[in-house]
Amino acid sequence: MVEQWRRTPRARRRTWIPEAVVLALTGVGLVELLAGGPISGSAGQNTGALLAPGLLAVAFALLARRLLPLACAALFRLTRSRGGIAPFLAVRQIARGSATGSTVIVLGAGLGLAVFAVAAWSVTSRNFAEVARVHNGAETVFVVRAGDAATLRRVSAGIPGSAPVVRMPGPPVMLATDPARFAAVALWRPSYAGGRALEDLTPRLAAPVAPRVPLTGDRIRARLDVGDIPSGWTIVLFANVRVPGQDRPSVLPLARPEHGRTVYEWGLPPACRTGTCELRGLRIQSTPTGTSDFEHPPGDLGVVGLDVRRDGRWAALDAGLTDRARWRPAVAGQAGLVLSMSPWAGAAGGAGAAVPATFPDPLPALTGGTPGNRKLPGLDDAFASGYVPAVPAAAVPGLDAPAEWSTSNWPIGPRTDTRTRPSSRSGRRRAARARSSRACAPPGCRSWPPAPPRACGPVTRARGRVSR
Fold this sequence. Notes:
The protein is α+β, with helices and mostly antiparallel strands. It has twelve helices and 20 strands.
């Protein structure tokens, strides 16, 4: 009450020039921030946009300083008849106090900057977690080193609730995995694929494929029907064989066809005597010499039968040489495969090579982008296959294909993962006893055993911007 009786000097009329300058700078900063995109570049382009939040807080504080006394003066008549003594004195003290404006500016600017800092921290934390969620793919990721898919399966089998994943660098990035197990552990949001659950999408990756051609023994034999081979041409029939524990398939010179001979044989790698190898393809190499007649190239070579010797006894292979659906391209005839020995086989409509159709071409995949007409090299760069989006998704660039097809030659590429749910604590202890490698990765990605700090390096990098 006594404060209300104190005389205060009559306030001069203040100019709006400081407020106008601050508002103009705030508008420029907002335009640069909204129209210029994110702040990026090593040279610091668009860094002026960082001033926009602070200028915005100061601008609102200046406007509040101007408008708050007017608003309190408008409440004089109302507080005379209602509200009690507290509102009556408060609005009058604010309206007549000379220090009120400075206090409003300080508190308003400080509160605005505090709110901006908290919001920036919250958004950054959420985006960091979202990037880790998308690019790790699961709550926990064990990065392991495995020589082949069988080793990766054994590691994954010791971790309950996990799925083995083979990651190949792109473009496009490929994840080869077991679709059913991956769907059970993957961090997935239906919004990634138009509101569809991952359990509903993975069955679309299924497609009929031909059975594999296993090889177990010490020698392989081919029965051939040799066509016309003019003088000056050297023909070699190669067989690509997948060998357990090897990163790349073995190439065997199975036969050097010549007239009057129909049976050829060659030794298999030592690992095939006790393990299960696999026939991955047949290929003809035609080499001309100085006396070759290019006007009359070699004819066709028929692969009538394939046998493998085990424990001294020969047994026929069920390679489906007469089944057009089991080989790609469809070169199977009534007597067997028909391969062209001509170096211009493709131009003449023939084929000088064939692979068992143990994987679909193109591969059905869950893609995170437009596939185009690109080919996937597989995990050994030996055979290329196209891919078709079974369901397009919008999560991150890359694709997800069944491991049984994309690892048709079974070597493991640069990175193998075992992804698990967070509750598999016992599985983590088992993974520590498995063959593993050092790695550093985003949150949730772990390696067993832990590596020393100097051995750690980034395993994954964000390939998309998350702005949620």
